[in-house]
């Protein structure tokens, strides 16, 4: 009598019907990050470089997310794993010692590498793995932001340049020439590209500057308690500054309201008169 063959259960592929054909799509399994076998270098954080420094190699624990509990770690040179529950036979404990703030671990010492790079509770706090490719990527990101900021600063109009620099250096911008303003703007963009790019795309910066200029020229004024903006000519109140908000930030937001837009247009006429 022929034996009945059993088939292994298989994951069904995703089947998608269209007007003219049936499309079969196989969903690939997600790939785990690949561990690269290579020499690795570790450094103590904060630039510390003592002649020798010992990192704990026993009585340390790692919380295993997949298993749902803490696992004891230990560095034993005669073992193929840093997990105590996976060790077989004698456990010959080894010290982990940094010399002059650094520890070079050859590719053959995979147990120590994985302990330091993946599982040790003090990694990235007491010490870190030097990763030149990561540092290079960070530097490229910084340089690209610097280039983008400088390109925008180069072509920016003088009013926005004044608005941005007023945030940086205050009312001093009112006495600066356009060349001085442009120079300081380019220096600011180069030194603080992230802050510059944020300000350059924030429309409130221009509105804040507009409000400050109107105050400096005596068209409007801020009350002594910094709670109200008033017409300078007759002390009629324009708006009240909400608690815990910067007066000129509040004024910029108010300029976007229906009432504020009318006042903005009125002030603009006086500024251009």
Give a verbal description of the structure.
The protein is an alpha+beta fold. It has two domains: 40-130, no CATH class; 144-272, no CATH class. Helix content is 38%, strand content 18%. It contains eight helices and twelve strands. The protein has helices spanning 110-119, 132-155, 158-169, 178-191, 193-200, 203-216, 247-254, 258-272, and strands spanning 14-17, 22-25, 40-44, 52-55, 60-64, 69-73, 96-99, 102-105, 127-129, 220-222, 228-231, 237-240. Strands 8-3-9 form a three-stranded antiparallel sheet, with helices on one face. It has a three-stranded antiparallel sheet with strand order 10-11-12. Strand 10 (220-222) and strand 11 (228-231) form a beta hairpin. The protein starts with 13 loop residues before the first strand and ends with a helix.
**Low-confidence spans: pLDDT under 50, at least 5 residues?**
17-25
Distance between the termini: 107 Å
Biggest sheet strand order reads 8-3-9
Looking at how many chains there are and whether they match, the oligomeric state comes to: single chain
CA-atom Rg in angstroms: 32 Å
Sheet having the most strands:
3 strands, antiparallel
The 3D shape can be described as elongated
Instruction: Tell me the number of strands.
Output: 12
The number of distinct helices, counting runs of at least 4 residues, comes to: 8
How would you state the average pLDDT, rounded? 88
Total count of domains: 2
Order of helices and strands, N to C?
A: EEEEEEEEHEHHHHHEEEHH
- Measured by DSSP, the beta-strand proportion falls in 15-25%
Residues in helix, %? 25-40%
């Amino acid at each position: 009598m022929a034996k009945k063959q059993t088939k292994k259960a298989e994951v069904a592929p995703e089947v998608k019907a269209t007007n003219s054909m049936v499309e079969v799509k196989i969903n690939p399994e997600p790939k785990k990050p690949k561990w690269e076998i290579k020499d690795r270098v570790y450094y103590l954080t904060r630039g510390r470089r003592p002649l020798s420094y010992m990192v704990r190699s026993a009585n340390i624990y790692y919380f295993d997310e997949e298993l749902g509990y803490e696992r004891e770690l230990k560095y034993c040179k005669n073992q193929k794993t840093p997990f105590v529950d996976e060790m077989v036979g004698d456990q010959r404990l080894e010290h982990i010692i940094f010399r002059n703030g650094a520890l070079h671990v050859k590719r053959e010492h995979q147990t120590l590498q994985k302990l330091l790079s993946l599982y040790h509770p003090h990694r990235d706090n007491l010490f870190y793995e030097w990763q030149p490719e990561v540092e290079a990527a960070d530097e490229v990101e910084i340089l690209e932001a610097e280039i983008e900021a400088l390109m925008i600063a180069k072509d920016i109009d003088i009013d926005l340049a004044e608005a941005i620099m007023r945030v940086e250096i205050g009312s001093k911008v009112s006495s600066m020439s356009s060349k001085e303003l442009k120079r300081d703007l380019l220096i600011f963009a180069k030194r603080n590209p992230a802050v510059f790019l944020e300000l350059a795309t924030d429309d409130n910066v221009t509105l804040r500057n507009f409000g400050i200029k109107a105050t400096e020229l005596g068209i409007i004024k801020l009350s002594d308690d910094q709670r109200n903006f008033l017409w300078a000519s007759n002390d009629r109140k324009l708006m009240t500054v909400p608690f815990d908000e910067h007066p000129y930030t509040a004024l910029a937001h108010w300029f976007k309201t229906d009432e504020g837009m009318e006042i903005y247009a009125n002030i603009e006429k006086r500024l251009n008169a």
